[in-house]
Design brief:
mainly beta; Cathepsin D, subunit A, domain 1; six-stranded mixed beta barrel; three-stranded antiparallel beta sheet; 2 helices; 10 strands
Amino acid sequence: MAVRVEIKVDLIGGRSLKAIALVNTGFETFKPQLLLPIKAAEGLDLWPDLPGEARVEIYDTAGGPMRVYIIPDAAQVSILTEDRESKSPSSDIVISHTEVEVLISDKLAGQLKVLIEDPGEGIWRFRDDLPDKRRTSKPPEYWT
């Protein structure tokens, strides 16, 4: 199992979307980024008509190079739990043709104050939760 959380994505001046996102510390970035599969980007009206500030980049992944579309500082992302909604840091949106899950980058996970307690069991907590607080992973959501 891995750590997956329910999130809310609020585009700056636009739509919102709720989704389950994989906290992927292997998705290393220089700033907070949220990767969306094409189907999720469609739900936010970001695809196929990309905003003018979008740019194309090639990301190195475990499966090889991948073309992505980056919309800088496009959204605020928060984690939704049974007892709270986290703060909403600004994040780039990264759109992928290949990925089928929404992915939270390492920098975004840090901004959201996610502490992974047991990745094998999907146990996590917020950095400001009491030390004995155990939150459990959500089931995966695939955008195919």
